[in-house]
Amino acid sequence: MSTLLEVSGVSVTFDGFRAINNLSFSIAEGELRAVIGPNGAGKTTFMDIVTGKTRPDSGRVLFGEKSVDLLRLSEARIARAGVGRKFQRPTVFEDQTVAENLMLALRAHRAPWRVLFWRPKPADHARIAELAAEVGLSDQLPRKAGELSHGQKQWLEIGMLLAQEPRLLLVDEPAAGMTGPEREHTTDLLVSLARSRAVVVVEHDMEFVRRLACKVTVLHEGSVLAEGSLDHVTANPAVIDVYLGRG
Ligand SMILES: Nc1ncnc2c1ncn2[C@@H]1O[C@H](COP(=O)(O)OP(=O)(O)OP(=O)(O)O)[C@@H](O)[C@H]1O
After folding, report:
1. What is the pLDDT of residues 136-155, one digit of tens each?
2. Which domains does the chain have, with CATH numbers?
3. Any atom of ligand 1 within 6 Å of the Cβ of 43
4. What confidence category does residue 108 fall into, taking pLDDT thresholds of 50, 70 and 90?
5. What is the 3-state secondary structure (H, E, C) of 88-153?
6. Does the pLDDT of residue 93 top 80, yes or no?
7. How far apart are CA 180 and CA 25, in angstroms?
8. pTM metric for this prediction
9. Where's the ABC transporter domain (predicted)?
10. 25 Cα to the center of ligand 1, angstroms
11. 45: CA distance to ligand 1 center in Å?
C-alpha cells in the first residue's frame, strides 16, 4: 500500500515545553490506525498539526501521491485537500434534521463562490441517502439532530465529514460517552470507513482499540514509543511502564 500521510521529524514547543519531539510516522492509503498514549503524550497536538491548527517549529507533513506539504496550506485548504477531522464533542446543528445537516455539509464542501449559487439537485438528495446509509442513520433522516442519542449525533457528524470525501479521517476519542451497543456500531463503522479511505483513531479505551483490530501507534512525550499490533505494543515493557501500568 502506498503512503498517504508522512510525518517526519516534526517538533513543536509551547512556552519552552516540547509537546511533539521529532515525531515521525506514516499512514498508508486506506489504512485504519489507532493512536494511543498517556495524557499529554501529544495525540491532540499531532492532529492539530496535520489539520493546520498548530504550526510545528520543524519537520514535514507530506500528503498524497504528489507529497503536498500540508505545513504550507491553510486549515481550509488542508480540509479541501482531503483531510477530515472529527472532534470529541459532536457539533451538529441540533435544530436541523439529519437530512438538513447532511445537506449543509454537502453545500459547505463547495468552494466559497459556488456555495452562494448552490441549489440541491436530485444527485445531492441521493448522496444524502447514501451518506445516511453509510453511517447507519437511514431511518433517522427526518428527525431533528437534537433528538438523537449521543452516539447517533457522532455518526451524523461522521456522515457530514464524509460529504467532504476525505482521503484521511482523523477521529478523536469516538467511544467517549457512548453506550456499549453504540461503541460496537462505531467500531464497525470505522472499520468499514477504512475500506475506502485512511482512518486514524485516537482512543483511550483499550477494548475499543482491540475491536478495531488494526496497527497501533503508542505516543509518549511527543514521539513514537512503540508500534504494531495491540498485543505487540501492550507486551512492550516501556509501554506498560508509561501507560498501561498506571491504570
Ligand atoms: N496551546 C498549548 N499551549 C501550551 N501547551 C500546550 C498547548 N497544547 C498542548 N500543550 C501541551 O502539550 C502536551 C501535549 O498535549 P496534547 O493535548 O497533545 O496531549 P494528548 O496526548 O492529546 O493528551 P490527552 O490524552 O490528555 O488528550 C501537554 O503537556 C499539553 O499541556
Report:
1. 999 999 999 999 999 999 99
2. 3-93+151-246 (3.40.50.300)
3. yes
4. confident
5. CCCCCCCCCEHHHHHHHHHHHCCCHHHHCCCCCCHHHHHHHHHHHHHHCCHHHCCCEHHHCCHHHH
6. yes
7. 32
8. 0.92
9. 5-246
10. 19
11. 6
